[in-house]
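Lab notebook, bench 4. The sequencing result for the construct came back, and we need a structural model before the next group meeting so we can plan mutations. Quick request posted to the team channel:

Model the 3D structure of this chain.
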Amino acid sequence: METILGFIEAIGGILWGPWTPLVLLAAGLLFTVWTRFTQAASMTHGVQVVRGVYDDPDDPGAISHFQALSAALSATVGLGNIGGVALAIGIGGPGAVFWMWLVAVFGMALKSVEITLAMMYRNTDDPDNPHGGAMWVVDEVIGKKGGGMKVLAKLIGGFFCVTLIISTFTGGNMFQAWSVAGLTETYFDVPKIATGIIMAVIVGLVIIGGIKRIGNVAGKVVPFMCLLYLLAGLAVVALHITDIPSMFALIFTSAFSPTEAAGAFIGGGVGFAFMEGMKRSLFSNEAGQGSAPIAHAAAKTNEPAREGIVGGLGPFIDTICICTLTAMVILSTGTWNRDAIGVVAAPVNLVAAEGDADHLVWNVEGPSDVGSLPKGEYETWSVGDTFYLIANVAGAVEAGKERTVVKITGSIREVAGDSDEAAKGMEVVWDPLKVAKADWIGTIGSIKLMNLGVHRQYGGAELTGHAFDRAFKGLGKWLVTLAAWLFAISTMISWSYYGEQGVVYLAGKRGILPYKIVFLILVVVAAVGIKDAQEMIIIMDLGTGAMLWSNIPIVLGLGYLAVREMNQYMRKLKAGEFKRYDKEK
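Done. Here's the predicted structure in token form:
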């Protein structure tokens, strides 16, 4: 498994090289200017369209504009908003939030263009189940030229579908199941396999019904879960309302200067915050990834640009609203740089061990007794929990992250006393610290513990739940768990449809049933098989990065068609050429 993860991480490193965020931002900026700031149209006209003002029941398509937006949002508004933001701040620091915002603003234009393009060339041969997405665009625009261009179109479309399926299985499925399983076990001691099975059954019952059932479910679940989460988040922020200016100042400051290690946060440079914010924002709102056009392609409309403008609302709702609220909860409660809840009862000795040409290794001498570890005001310890100590690295700086500290992780196990009746204690089993030389600038001299303070190792959703608990005891346990279940299930049902469309393009309808079976099996596999957040990040970044690089060239190469369509639509709108169906006309 370690070899496989290493291979995946190496590919992810290529996909997420320093050029990736620059290309993404450049594409968003290009289409922002080219469409004359279509973000403004999304915030005004797009809202009217979602309200049904321009809904013509005779237009081709399967679901309304509102249902299409809900289906797309059900894929984007998920654990990325709860867990992804927590990972971005916990790993990259507060500055990551600023870069999430930037991606979202430019992403509104990028998403409007890619959705318009998909709507222009969608397949509506089956009115109840339209097909759309980048693969159909290249088929219609490039493939129709015949000859070798048809083969080229099939290759490009097929490659996009392969990356789509990878992203579906990883970020759209496995990350969701892993997050919910970990959160539910943490709060309610429900075995992860039970959570995985229950989620697989629920998701299976919905996806059997196709896009109409998905649209109906999303149209009911998404507004409810968003409202519930927003109200709870606002209540937490209201407790710290006087700190809001300083929180925004911290976000802006950290975006342009390194953030020093403090408490549970081990530090990070500007470039690292930039990259983490970009990754998590893209994972959350999917701008440029090419997934949302597949859901929007089912909308009932004769105007491709109209649905594109509606789609531009997605990044605003997802990232500017919901992700920002999550960030405010984490920052205002001091969760991201929280103090240690106590110290280990016995000394922890690091001993250099034999490594290899590429790695240095330190072992921890024996387990540590934590029976006397105090229970924190917000945290408790139990068998199986993981946590970490922080050590300082002398003589070198971690490349790309600009920090000089590392985590030493361990997990708690139960130890029996001298007899069956004796009280049982707890001890920490420490993981060896393995450091890759290539990841550091300079020569590592030594590694020493900064202190013996213990921090709980939280997954993304668990960290957000802890933040809510710090404000209102028990709120994280109940609200975040409920929201995580709703967010995850809604994301999984929409992403299952995305992957299904890729399968249909590659193998026809005969591939749908085997695909759905594999999809549901992976729900259970992810719930019990992913060890920690680092493994999950490696896996989900593979899918996101691969899909981004397969979609962006298509949008950049053919986006001029969508821009032309959008500009024509706006001219007609200003001229009053579109019929309104609202009662206020």
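The chain has two domains: 2-337+465-574, 342-450.
Will bring this to the meeting.
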